[in-house]
Amino acid sequence: MQFFSVVSSPVLLLQLCISTLHHMFASIFSAVRYWRTTSPVSPVDRKVDQRKVQNATTPTSVNYHFTRKCNYKCGFCFHTAKTSFVLPLEEAKRGLKLLKESGMEKINFSGGEPFLPDKGEFLGKLVQYCKQDLQLPSVSIVSNGSMIKETWFQKYGADLDILAISCDSFDEATNQLIGRAQGKKSHVDNLLKIKNWCLQYKVAFKINSVINTFNVDEDLTENILQLNPVRWKVFQCLLIDGENAGESALREAERFVISEQQFQEFLDRHSSVSCLVPESNEKMRNSYLILDEYMRFLDCREGRKDPSKSILDVGVKEAICFSGFDEKMFLKRGGKYVWSKADMKLEW
Ligand SMILES: C[S@@+](CC[C@H](N)C(=O)[O-])C[C@H]1O[C@@H](n2cnc3c(N)ncnc32)[C@H](O)[C@@H]1O
Ligand code: SF4
After folding, report:
1. Are 98 and 142 in contact (CB under 8 A)?
2. Domains held by the chain: number
3. Which atom from ligand 2 is nearest to the alpha carbon of 180?
4. Which residue, among 244, 276, 330, 312, has the nearest Cα to 62 in the 3D structure?
5. pLDDT by residue (tens digit) across 33-51?
6. CATH number, domain at 182?
7. Using one digit for the tens of pLDDT, what is the confidence trace for 56-74?
8. Which is deepest, 4, 37, 114, 245, by most CB within 10 Å?
9. The model's pTM
């Protein structure tokens, strides 16, 4: 009866229709809103991503910063101890295998200080795995050098192509000011010791220097020529928001920053050093494929390190689309070079 009286009134019938439609649209909108907040990408993005994924860059040369912890306190450091996480060895190996299957030819282990976890054993096992199991043409390390022991070379030296030691100055007082030191130990004496172990155990020796306000006026020519590295990488001190600049950063590196002109003057002063490879901020920022401790690519295009998803979760091709990697700049800065020690024709 009641139903009959409702449907028999056109006004009430119209109200019923409007209310039903309102409920229908409300539930559709709330479903879409839920889906948008829980799903990382919209369907349109997914389609674009799939095209990008198909044409993803080959990770020819990769830098794996497997730890962020360090025993030094360099004031300009742009990869700081924001976590103490290190992947379990087998997971790190799985990621390295995925990279090799995607075309990786060179792996560089960095940090933090790569010789810290398990007193260099974690690193040694990764080096061995990359050379012996994955047969990578080039396996290298960047280290501050302070934790390296001769026994490490005896055990793992044969599987390592290049060891780069960071040294910004041959003046200990400058190293102390920078924070490139642990206690009163001499960074330079250590560097000389490692250079000799590299000769003895047939590992190519390289030096990295960061040019900053504390060393910009120095002349390192004589020391570098004496040490005779295969390559001397010279970086202009770079700021990265969230690492060494900005509110959430663990370092404040503004006081280390030098201008383009100051950097150029340093390069001009060292023009007689033929192994010098210069990297201005512009060349450096996006020309490295950087993997963090979770095996996520870090995108520096916005001046900070924005992580992708982990290659362990989504694979290399998808993750690398979010790396911000500039392959042209990588080639322009000389990123591809003779990087197997077997091809270097070195006199040991
Ligand atoms: C982050 S460190 C990690 C490896 C190791 N602890 C070391 O210092 O060699 C890797 C390289 O980045 C360089 N580096 C650190 N902070 C930098 C900055 N703000 N600008 C340019 N290079 C920097 C270091 O000198 C080193 O050669
Ligand atoms: S740059 Fe200095 S503080 Fe940073 S990881 Fe290397 S040695 Fe440690």
Report:
1. no
2. 1
3. 2
4. 330
5. 323 333 333 334 544 468 8
6. 3.20.20.70
7. 899 999 999 999 999 999 9
8. 114
9. 0.87
